[in-house]
Amino acid sequence: MAQSHEIDVLVIGSGPTGLTAANLLADSGLQVALIEKNPGSGDEPRAISATDETLRVMSHLGIMGQLGPEMLMDTGARYFGLGGKVIADVRPGNPRLGQPGKSQFDQPIMEGLLYEAATVRQNLHLHYNTAATKIEQHADHVIVHATGTGEATTGFNGAKTGDSGQDPYAQAAGQETALEFKAKWVLACDGGKSFTRRELGIGLQGSTQTERWIVVDLLDVPGNPEPFASFHCNGQRPAVVVPGAGGRRRYEFMLFDHEDGEQMSAPESIATLISDFQDTEVVTIRRAAVYTAHQRIAERYREGRVLLAGDAAHLMPPFAGQGLNAGIRDAAAISWRLAAVINSEATEALIDDYEAERRPHAAQMVKLSKRIGAVVMNTNPIITRIRDAVVIGTRIIPRLNRWLTGMRFLKQPHYTTGTVVPPLAGVPHLAQDFAGRMLPQPAVNANGATTMLDDLLSAGWNTIEVAAGHQLVFTNQEGDTVTATDTSRVFDAATGTVLLVRPDYYVAGIAPANERAQLLKQLSSKATVLATFGVAKQNTHG
Ligand SMILES: Cc1cc2nc3c(=O)[nH]c(=O)nc-3n(C[C@H](O)[C@H](O)[C@H](O)COP(=O)(O)OP(=O)(O)OC[C@H]3O[C@@H](n4cnc5c(N)ncnc54)[C@H](O)[C@@H]3O)c2cc1C
Predict the structure, then answer these.
(1) Dihedral angle at the C-alpha atoms of 302, 303, 305, 306, nearest 10 degrees?
(2) Rounded to the nearest whole angstrom, what is the distance from the C-alpha of residue 169 to the centroid of ligand 1?
(3) pLDDT tens digits, residue range 320-351?
(4) Domain boundaries of the chain, sorted by first residue
(5) How far is CA 59 from its chain centroid?
(6) Tell me: the pLDDT tens digits for 49-71?
(7) Among 357, 360, 348, 346, which residue's Cα sits nearest to residue 523?
(8) Is 244 in the pocket of ligand 1 (CB under 6 A)?
């Protein structure tokens, strides 16, 4: 007889996507279970670049205080061409979300902190050493069968276990237990080899890179880290060097067809590879792994009541540093929608909007990562010479140069379909650009104190009126009207309008300030909660 659990949402996989989603879902009051086949959070050398959007979500979950000191904040990237010549120096321009546009972090540390956050959320039940084995769809629920191995466990922090020298992937031995999870919805965050995706028969579109890379993580690197990642597009052995906080540093080298992955991972081969960049005597090799990247996207993100997120839905080479960041976007985009539908505050149309918004942007990021890879990995002497000349040539065209050096090729989502409405008539031209994008997060002055905007907004939907004198007027969590001064003037273009802001901080719509009711009405057929929300807010604002 299987041990059974009944919850609102089952999350499969405790990578960064699953842990983020599980925490967010629990924060919206749902009963959530997370199952993971490994015994704890991950300790593999993977993501190291985080976007401002990811850090905003981490801040929302309350872990930035611990994550921040472990990060190298506000970094850029420097591209070196043939002969080691700098061909481009890039840095995200003008970040508006309250965090630097690009920063370096350590994936196991982020996962460990997300795991610790999960352990203190009472309505989030963790089941490690537990693998999903079968999925049964029903009209109003899903049954996921799973196998637990060894003692029932709530898992451990893989980053800490890794530091202690233990093998975090040592599989539990012992008796197998059959488990059964009955959930209203299932969120599959089970990674690139997703069991769920295969079980549901969802195909992957795209290809696999032919090149293999070796990734080497070092500890105890002396000196101050340089504030940029270096891409050595040298036409011989392409390499990437990424600094980190606390003496951490990542090296990645392309391998050639004739090179054996195992031999190249041996300490003496690694020492030879990094000796061009680094005094190898003084550092510690934390780990090395050979990987082949995929550039693929799931045909669809939903089957019945099961949804895909993170690497289960899209796989991309690491050159644009977008894989994990896309997964965190997915987690933030789906969590509030599931909560709204389960709490009868929205129709299922909102769930379909998840794919409508997220899949096209993920597909763009897959394509971009592939293109950057092609630029970095090229070893053809003629093509690399032309490449360098073209990149250097952009310096004489200011607009193109800004596009390149400001990393504008790394487009943040701008949703035009999904849970968004076009700007209502009368919205000034420049203000229209707020719709469908993430809400800027300036520091604001309110009630005699300076604070970040997110700290004042209420959980859930918000309306923000942008009034003359850089004033933002909204209702806080306690139901009080707040008038805050936007110190950065980032909202100035929207003066005289009202913004409708979703629980994931995306602007669902914008209207002239006196059209608030009309704006809310536009979305209330999907997000039914807005019908009454509108009345409440109008009364509050008198
Ligand atoms: C070398 C390298 C560098 C990278 N650099 C970056 C970067 O700089 N920036 C960036 O954004 N991304 C980067 N990435 C990508 C990033 O690491 C991934 O996109 C990210 O880990 C995906 O997270 P996830 O939670 O979706 O999946 P995963 O981290 O793969 O987690 C999936 C989890 O599901 C579990 N699971 C699988 N099957 C089952 C089952 N049947 N039952 C229960 N559990 C199951 C797995 O054990 C795993 O823990 C890099 C990747 C690599 C390899």
Answers:
(1) -70
(2) 14
(3) 899 999 999 999 999 999 999 999 999 999 99
(4) 3-70+95-200+298-367, 429-540
(5) 13
(6) 999 999 999 999 999 999 999 99
(7) 346
(8) no
Here the tokens at position 162 are 């890794």
Atom of ligand 1 nearest to the CA of 51: 11
CATH H-level superfamily of 3-70+95-200+298-367: FAD/NAD(P)-binding domain (3.50.50.60)
Q: State the chain's mean pLDDT as an integer.
A: 93
Angular region, 440: left φ>0, alpha ψ -120 to 50, beta rest: beta
Q: What is the mean pLDDT of residues 361-388?
A: 90
Whose tokens are 């982020």? That residue is 110
- 450 CB-contact burial (10 Å; exposed 0-12 / middle 13-18 / buried 19+): exposed
Residue type, 530: L
Give the tens place of pLDDT for each residue, 215-271: 999 999 999 999 999 999 988 999 999 999 999 999 999 999 999 999 999 999 999
Q: Which residues is 216 bridged to in the sheet?
A: 251, 288
The confidence score (pLDDT) of residue 358 equals 98
Decide: 82 and 388 in contact? Cβ < 8 Å.
yes
Q: Is 30 in the pocket of ligand 1 (CB under 6 A)?
A: no
Distance, in Å, from the CA atom of 123 to the CA atom of 448, rounded to the nearest integer, reads 36
Structure confidence at residue 161 as a pLDDT band (50, 70, 90): confident
Is the pLDDT assigned to residue 540 strictly greater than 70? no
Measured CA to CA, the distance from residue 311 to residue 324 in angstroms comes to 8
**18 touches ligand 1 (CB under 6 Å):** yes
Other beta carbons within 10 Å of 261? 15
